[in-house]
Specification:
Number of helices: 16
Number of domains: 3
Radius of gyration: 22 Å
Main location: cytoplasm
Structural class: alpha/beta
Distance between the termini: 15 Å
GO molecular function: oxygen-dependent protoporphyrinogen oxidase activity
CATH architecture of the largest domain: 3-Layer(bba) Sandwich
CATH class of the largest domain: Alpha Beta
CATH topology of the largest domain: FAD/NAD(P)-binding domain
Strand order of the largest sheet: 8-7-16-17-18-15-19
Protein name: Coproporphyrinogen III oxidase
Keywords: Cytoplasm, FAD, Flavoprotein, Heme biosynthesis, Oxidoreductase
Family: Belongs to the protoporphyrinogen/coproporphyrinogen oxidase family. Coproporphyrinogen III oxidase subfamily.
Bound molecules: flavin-adenine dinucleotide
């Protein structure tokens, strides 16, 4: 009899898992169940008046190969594009200042640009330079990013350089973000070289099969829009059901919200972070569901070029928390991606939603756009946008807090005892799309191996 697999959640994780099941075991039937009325989860592309607006992920780190491989496997290799080069600025002390040259994730690696930057006071610079002589901080026990970088480089570097950048990327708070789960490479550098500044000089971007050296380490995206990947993956799946929320999962059995029960030989859970507990209902799954999540709104603003100033030499800026603005970061998308806007236009993407004001993302589109414009006008000259697109992620941004890896390990050990049930998704091994793809592919391989045993 034909074997049947059910995948729950049609974000990139669920779609990838379903795709690889079909690829690895053609005669297995795959049903993909999605709670909402659309595919893609956080991936959403809006095309309007010649603009291509990514409302979720816009690109990904080229050095992580899983997504590039998947893109090539679905036949979109010719659509891969590199971001245009450019640096970021930081809005701090009411001024935009360039990130010092050689900074990686806001962490200084070169002394001269650090000595000359206006981002840090002379005292802050002396404190940061103490990294060169301080003993190791990380002792094989997870700690927060604030503690790790604070003890190595001092609080001014954190507040004015590292936190704005990392909070922008992860929508989180360094005070509880896990070093081991979020930036393990820095724990590794410290372990090997003791000083971060000295150790970072030895770091070479990992080599990547099929991507030229020049391209590695940069951002990649799809010129056709990220949603085309979603469509291509969906084409490979036998049966996709939208508006199909799942309530509970057990070996061989999926219970839908409406009470219907579906049978399957294997089940892959790739749903939203808060769903692991309710769906699987064992303590280690609840522990992940109870972990912190944040809300954010992404605001795309389309302008005629003449109606908004550019940030000189930068593709955008991040904002230090102490400035008290609603926006946390802002990108000139057409400075990064050729397809983002018509030639005479600019597409600006801002993020709002901080831990200090989590309700902000719940406000109306109009109120959110006005807040963004109000903040932008404090920083640069801004006229009236042609239109705006607001996208919210309510209570849906997983945060890897201290101890995350341990919780994931315990979850996977417990899940391993439930026959025929697997899990993947941004809650587990990385929130970047390549991490989700890698994790989903592994879940599919495990399921197929068990089915064909
Ligand atoms: C604004 C923004 C910008 C980002 N930028 C980048 C970037 O540039 N690069 C990058 O690499 N990453 C980026 N990310 C992160 C990345 O997009 C996500 O981590 C990734 O897309 C998550 O995919 P996922 O499939 O695990 O989860 P999701 O996309 O959240 O999908 C989960 C799916 O499960 C469904 N679901 C939930 N519960 C149930 C249920 N009970 N039954 C059935 N279905 C259910 C949901 O409706 C949803 O469709 C960004 C994220 C956001 C929000």
């Amino acid at each position: 009899m034909q074997k049947k697999v059910i995948v729950i959640g049609a974000g990139i994780s669920g779609l990838t898992a379903a795709f690889y099941i079909k690829k690895l075991a053609k005669d297995v039937s795959v049903t993909l169940l999605e709670a909402s009325d659309r595919l893609g989860g956080k991936i959403k592309t809006v095309r309007k008046s010649g603009f291509t607006i990514e409302c979720g992920p816009e690109g990904y780190m080229a050095r992580k190969p899983a997504l590039t491989e998947l893109i090539r496997e679905v036949g979109l290799g010719d659509q891969l594009v590199n971001s245009k080069s450019g640096s970021y600025s930081i809005y701090v002390n009411h001024r935009l200042r360039p990130m010092p040259k050689g900074s990686v994730m806001g962490i200084p690696t070169k002394l001269l640009p650090m000595v000359t930057t206006g981002l840090i006071s002379p005292l802050g610079k002396i404190r940061a330079a103490m990294d060169l002589v301080l003993p190791r901080v990380y002792q094989n026990k997870d700690m927060s990013l604030a503690e790790f970088f604070g003890r190595r480089l001092g609080h001014e570097v954190i507040t004015n350089m590292i936190a704005p950048l990392l909070s922008g990327i992860y929508n989180g708070d360094l005070a509880d973000m896990s070093l081991e789960a979020t930036l393990p490479q820095f724990a590794g550098i410290e372990k090997k070289h003791r000083s971060l500044i000295l150790g970072m000089k030895h770091i070479q971007p990992p080599k990547q099969v099929g991507v030229s050296k020049k391209k590695a380490g940069q951002l990649l995206s799809l010129s056709c829009g990220m949603d085309v990947l979603v469509e291509k993956l969906a084409d490979a799946i036998d049966d996709i059901r939208l508006n199909a929320p799942v309530r509970h999962v057990q070996t061989g059995r999926v219970e839908m919200e409406d009470g219907t029960v579906l049978k399957a030989d294997a089940i892959i859970v790739a749903a939203a972070p808060k769903q692991l507990g309710p769906l699987l209902d064992f303590p280690e799954a609840w522990a992940l569901s109870h972990d912190k999540r944040t809300s954010t709104a992404t605001v795309a603003l389309a302008f005629k070029k003449k109606d908004i100033a550019a940030v000189a030499g930068s593709t955008g800026f991040v904002v230090s928390k102490k400035e008290g603005l609603s926006i946390t970061a802002c990108s000139w998308m057409n400075h990064k991606w050729a397809n983002a806007a018509p030639d005479d236009c600019t597409l600006v993407r801002s993020y709002i939603g901080t831990e200090t004001d989590p309700k902000m993302a719940e406000e109306t589109d109009e109120a959110i756009v006005n807040k963004v414009l109000f903040d932008l006008r404090k920083i640069i000259e801004v006229g009236t946008p042609l239109f705006s697109v607001v996208t919210r992620q309510m209570d849906n941004m997983p945060q890897y807090t201290v101890g995350h890896n341990q919780r994931v390990q315990e979850f996977e050990a417990a899940l391993g005892k439930i026959s025929g049930v697997y899990a993947c998704g941004a809650i587990l091994h990385g929130v970047g799309v390549p991490d989700c793809v890698d994790n989903a592919k592994r879940a599919a391989e495990q399921a197929v191996a068990a089915l064909t045993e």
